[in-house]
Specification:
Elements lengths: L5 E14 L2 E14 L3 E5 L6 H8 L7 E10 L2 E2 L5 H7 L4 E4 L3 H4 L6 H12 L5 H14 L16 H12 L6 E5 L7 H18 L2 E6 L2 H7 L2 E6 L2 E7 L11 H8 L3 E2 L4 E2 L37 E4 L2 E4 L4 H8 L1
Parallel strand pairs: 3-8, 3-9, 6-7, 7-8
Antiparallel strand pairs: 1-2, 1-4, 4-5, 9-10, 10-14, 11-12, 13-14
């Protein structure tokens, strides 16, 4: 299998919510490809559409949420073309998800062993219970939890241990693709660092592709090889992680996020927020959705939505880059 084999392919994906004002797209015409063994970060403010996209990929949308356009392919298979039996067999075996709240993801009245073993046996029909228990023990070893925790209930474990259990369950069936939706948000920085190091170690060992979702720029830049920046339901920039530093030219929103990271110096700590708030998806501004908050917006930004323009090894949706494209191809 080639290293450039697509594992996740989003083709013009839009995900909407049915409201009294009609369908409101929380994910709007997104294209994204993740390749074998690659970690791609997804960054954006709360409400930008990150988790909606993740739930759409896993086919876990609930209530009034629905796919309004586009396709989702994982490991070459159309997720929404599967019947429920095919989806049940495919999910967790080929694609899995680490949810941001481990306590919500785990059943509070079942032991760790029961939850892990039941997950394994539900997909591995020829496996005995003893074999499933041994596999569960191996998974606890991988995430560095004492095997005694197998008999514990979720509330008896620390937050960091619960998160490790959720990661262990996600990789139990050796999936080729794992979504990690803010997996360390509720943890202190020391435990967060430990789990991030383990995720990188496990990913190298198990060789799965990862979509790593977060609002923490420095964390994602360290984890991922490429980073997608999301705003108002669109991926407005895709860039190699090594370019994510002050001084590099990016979409104005990306530059704003970079300036919002605290920077330490001998004299003080500097931090600069982005003015304003994310737009209401029911009533998006005309043109570029970021223009009301953008310090360098020009007239065309207020009337025309920018197209994706190649930039380095990625792309950017910004009118300010359009002249550069003409120079490059002129």
């Amino acid at each position: 299998m080639s290293d450039r084999q697509p594992i996740l392919e989003l083709d013009h994906l839009s995900v909407g919510y049915q409201t009294s004002a009609g369908i409101v797209n929380a994910v709007n015409d997104v294209n994204l490809t993740i390749y074998k063994e690659e970690i791609v970060g997804l960054i954006g403010e709360s409400g930008s559409g990150k988790s909606t996209m993740a739930y759409a990929i896993m086919r876990l949308l609930k209530g009034d949420a629905l796919i309004t356009n586009g396709t989702i392919r994982v490991m070459g298979k159309d997720v929404y073309a599967m019947n429920l039996k095919e989806l049940r067999a495919f999910r967790w075996a080929q694609m899995a998800m680490v949810f941001q709240s481990a306590m919500s993801a785990l059943n509070p009245v079942m032991t760790v062993q029961t939850q892990m073993v039941d997950t394994i046996l539900a997909h591995k029909k020829g496996m005995t219970r003893l074999q499933a228990i041994e596999r569960a023990n191996q998974l606890l070893d991988i995430v560095r939890i004492d095997r005694k925790a197998m008999q514990s209930y979720p509330h008896e474990l620390s937050g960091g241990m619960r998160q490790r259990v959720v990661i262990a369950i996600a990789i139990a069936l050796n999936p080729g693709f794992v979504i990690m939706d803010e997996p360390t948000t509720a943890l202190d920085v020391v435990v967060q660092r430990s789990i991030l190091d383990q995720i990188k170690e496990i990913q190298k060992q198990e060789k799965f592709a990862v979509l790593f979702i977060s609002h923490d720029f420095s964390l994602v830049a360290e984890m991922a090889s490429r980073v997608a920046i999301m705003y108002a339901g669109r991926i407005i920039e895709m860039t190699p992680s090594q370019t994510l530093q002050l001084g590099e030219r990016h979409h104005p929103y990306t530059e704003g996020l970079l300036r919002a990271i605290p920077h330490l110096s001998a004299d003080n700590i500097t931090i600069e927020g982005i003015p304003g708030s994310p737009p209401n998806l029911v009533n998006l501004p005309r043109g570029c959705a970021f223009h009301p908050r953008c310090p360098v917006a020009v007239d065309v930004c207020k009337d025309q939505r920018p197209k994706a323009i190649p930039s380095g090894n990625g792309h950017v949706e910004c009118h300010l880059f359009e002249g550069e494209q003409e120079v490059q191809h002129g």
